[in-house]
Predict the structure of Fe2OG dioxygenase domain-containing protein.
Amino acid sequence: MEAFGQWSDGTNKDERLDGGYENVPTRDIHMKQVGLEPHWLEVLKAYVRPLQELMYTGYFHDDERIEGGYEAVPTRDIHMRQVGLTAHWDYILEEYVGPLQQTVFVGYTSVRHVFIFGRMGGLGVGVLYAVSLLLLLLWTVHSQGGVCVLGHMGQAFTLTDSFIRPDDNFYSSITKPPRAIMNFVVRYRPDEQPSLRPHHDSSTYTINIALNRPKIDYQGGGCKFIRYNCSVTDTRLGWLLMHPGRLTHYHEGLPVTSGTRYIMISFVDP
Ligand SMILES: O=C(O)CCC(=O)C(=O)O
Ligand SMILES: [Fe+2]
């Protein structure tokens, strides 16, 4: 292995990578460094992809679930957007789910990926700041006749702060509260929608809150994680289940045999 060449020094900086940065640094050598990246992509296509299809059944098509207001796995539901509660739900996500997320999914933070101009170096970034401020100033004076210029200058700073970070390369991430655009209450009834077929959610993680009581308000029901043969059936009113949405936690809604089961679902960080 040593014959492969220059090993990284184990720090975060790694010039050999596209981003020049390794999040969790290791002493390593990359396929790119030794000219084997195209071969590796072939291996992925020929051997890993079929394995992936076998192991992660349903992963590919369920990915489309939340795009364009379309539900690939339709449920009997009502969305927060429909009942004017989107802002309230966003508040709950930020205030209550965010801190839980940090405890449960250690090391995971909600981020937005933003385009940045890191490779331009100090001067380039300075010029970009100046130009963007000037454009915003001109636009403000033009559109508002000079009123509120200071207010807009404030916005300009916020914008450029998010969009230009000199020490990164091309793309960067900013930490944000958890975000979800699919937030809905699901209703299960034996004569309507008793169960939900196996699927993945289009979320980094999903929260599933019990809105009524098993064995009292309804019989049957629950959420089954198929790969782990693990069913969560004795849910508690108001308590929530948090599980990864994509890839690993293929799951289904178990049949409700009598009564009505209600749950609140939110696909966090789609
Ligand atoms: O019935 C359940 O608990 C699962 C619901 C679910 O998976 C979903 O709505 O995406
Ligand atoms: Fe689901």
Summary: The chain has three domains: 2-55, 60-107+178-268, 111-175. Residues 2-55 form one domain. The longest strand covers residues 261-268.
